[in-house]
Description:
The structure is a single chain. This protein is an alpha/beta fold. It has a single domain (about 5-195), classed as Rossmann fold (3-Layer(aba) Sandwich), CATH 3.40.50. Helix content is about 35%, strand content about 20%. The protein has 5 helices and 7 strands. The protein has a 7-stranded mixed sheet with strand order 1-3-4-2-5-6-7, with helices on both faces. Strand 5 (about 105-115), helix 3 (about 120-135) and strand 6 form a beta-alpha-beta unit. The chain is globular. The protein starts with 5 loop residues before the first strand and ends in an 11-residue tail after the last helix.
Amino acid sequence: MEVKSTEFIISNTDVSKSPKPTLPEIAFIGRSNVGKSSLINMLTNKQNLAKTSSTPGKTQLINHFLINKNMYWVDLPGYGFAKVSQTKRGDWTKMIWNYVETRSNLCNLFVLIDSRHTPQAKDIDFINKLGAKGIPFTIIFTKADKDSQKVVSANISLFKKALLKTWDEMPVAFVTSAVKRSGRKEILDFIEMLRSEFTIETPANTTP
Length: 208
């Protein structure tokens, strides 16, 4: 897949205000400061499509982008730690789950995991909840350039081992570096496969 065009469409806090679900949609989510915006920018070859920041919790809205005029990519708020109030975090949590549970054209949720760290309970719990709700997702391990290959490989192995305590098999996963642009082609090809295979369900005609 080649990203030929990108267009920012809308930011909002209410999934009902999202674009009409007439195109396949993928979304990106992860704990705060996982490198989500950097990954989106790397995949699209746009430096500032998604706003990056060293401050956790920068993304606070549901951000829709039209890609190649045939699908939407969505930048979601992070879950887990952010320097905001408990009330604000609660609002984000509600917003996130309203989106992933009700967005009818969502064909995949990319869950980003920071490869610099050993397994984090918040990531495991979030993935288990997705599985319990039957929400399709794929794992992307980010920041693979920030540590040695040995450390990254060890952390990913530990994460897989932790996840297999509750899963029969490991979900599809990619390893990436926004700096080195590694994993880009594999992820884009996977996205194109998802887009081409996804069918938008249209409501039945109830007119007498």
